[in-house]
Amino acid sequence: MSQSVPQPKLFACSQSKELAEKIAKAYGQELGKIITSTYSDGEFQPSFEESVRGSRVFLIGSTMPSSDNLMEMLLMLDAAKRASARHITAVIPYFGWARQDRKDKPRVPIAAKMIASILETAGATRIITMDLHADQIQGFFERPVDHLFASTLFLPHLRSLNLENLTIASPDMGGSKRAYAYSKALESEVVICYKQRAKANVISHMELIGDVKGRHVVLADDMVDTAGTLTKAADLMMEKGALSVRAICTHAILSGNAYERLEASALEELIVTDSIPLKKESKKIKVVSCAPLFADVMHRVNSNTSIASKFIM
């Protein structure tokens, strides 16, 4: 005789409230109630306003800077652990601080490893995230990590464009694996940009490896921060004879002068997910929601069924 699977409890961190509401709606239930008290100096305290004893709990929140976003997730994990939740899954659509995944010079931290350890210490028994900046970050955790790919969202959109002479481009050498995976799925050609940085977020030189003349180009990357790399790559593609240039970037950080750069660039369209809320609207930015993907995976995790079909890349 089969037993019904107990329903989990879903809670939202404040920075991802809008996305969490979409996920909860796609999941088929309401978000749980949380009250956050804030002291005059900025210290804050989240409080679950319902019992989570013995429950599977999903805490939804991206951890992009400021550090308050990470701190809120940690406090909620600790609160759920101390309230005797049975399983505590941190649903982190955008895993912040992931660019510090190795020592690239002496006397610097490996922030991604440190944060993985802190999340587990705070109480996370499982992590669900999407398009980590580096795949090896999964190995920083001792708990299960479900690393989802936004390709499951972007590929249907790209196919719907019916672009002939399609070429997938990587804006740097590090993203070549991602570009090749998209090109294999779309049966397209691949080109790669080679760039040199003067310092973080500043490109001193960029060259194109491959031919884009007479082709529609789609740049693929995991995130767009200042948009310097993307816009420079798009302008370079057009100089080399491309018919059009689009970009797919999972996480729309869009800091500094990113919006101004996008508007002034040759990019026809920037396609992103809602893992991070947009600071403002732009006619060049199209948002594809990741809520159905996360809701589906959360259902599968709760019922202990396979999520292998979600790993296209």
3D architecture notes:
This protein is of the alpha/beta class. The protein has 2 domains: 9-148, Rossmann fold; 151-289, Rossmann fold, CATH 3.40.50. 29% of the residues lie in helices and 27% in strands. The chain has 8 helices and 14 strands. It has helices at 17-27, 67-82, 111-122, 151-160, 176-186, 228-239, 258-264, 291-302, and strands spanning 9-12, 34-38, 44-48, 56-60, 87-92, 126-130, 145-148, 166-170, 189-199, 202-209, 216-224, 244-252, 269-273, 285-288. The strands form 3 sheets. A 7-stranded mixed beta sheet has the order 10-9-8-11-12-13-14, sandwiched between helices. α5 (176-186) links the parallel β8 and β9. α1 (17-27) packs across α8. The mean pLDDT is 93. GO terms for molecular function: ATP binding; kinase activity; magnesium ion binding; ribose phosphate diphosphokinase activity. One of its GO terms (biological process) is purine nucleotide biosynthetic process. Its EC number is 2.7.6.1.
Question: Which features would summarize this protein structure in a list?
Answer:
magnesium, globular, alpha/beta, five-stranded parallel β-sheet, Rossmann fold, 14 strands, nucleotide-binding, 313 residues, single chain, 27% strand
